[in-house]
User: Fold this.
Amino acid sequence: MIDLTLQDIRNLSNIIGDTNDGISGADIKRCLADAGIEILDDGKNQTRYTYTIGLIKRDHLYKCLSNEFEKYHSANRIIAFLNVVMDPGRYVKQEDRRKYDYLFEHINKFLRLKGYQYDKSGSLMEIPKADSLDDVDKLINDMNSRMYHRALHREVVKYCGKELLRKDNYDAVFEAAKGLEKRIQDMSGLPNTGEGLIIKAFDPRSPFIALNSCQTQTEKDETDGFIFLLKSIFKMYRNPAAHKLKCDWKKDQTETLDALTVISVAHKYLDLCAEVRKVGR
Assistant:
């Protein structure tokens, strides 16, 4: 788990409660409540004759988070709060996208020094720890920005995020392709590998995993196309990498992201699939 100090919590509070780019005080309170964190008095008071301004939102957030941190001597609740804040579902309105982009960039800059970051799906993942702010800026602003705009599936980032940030294109593509294979194995329970796994898992006569019911010609064509996509990924990215020397891998970063985008598409279709049966069940 992430090791945080009170100064770290202050820095996070300043980011989230930034006057111009952070979320509103009302949104902060909603996020605190959703994370199960006690909302302390912010000092605001209004009577018939007087009005007390109270704490500004970043100071009030720090008060609530630091109280939680010192009460439980743990950063778990703070991370739970960050998970709520970084949930992209909170920023579906077009006018909220700028706030999300700001939070995504700056919270990840901070977390990069701790060896963590959020992906575009809002999932917290472990990555190589940055040694300096220059390292943070270089990696986060370059590679993470490109990953963000490619909308890589969380399963791709899970298996190749560290390699991609290290600009190890060979390992990034190979690990992502192996991750796709492992997901199909996990969903079906089958020990098969490669094309044999795909044929067995998606056999329309007796499938372990099904994209649809294969009742209409359209459904059959869609299933055939998905199977063809999976076979193509294995032939293009998994099998060559397994048999080619790392020094002979010539794909640059753009070509690597292209490959990972294709693998992401396969994962997004797997999200729509149903587990019809499973070995061992």
Remarks:
- Residues 217-243 form the longest helix (27 residues).
- Residues 10 and 198 are 50 Å apart (CA to CA).
- The mean pLDDT is 85.
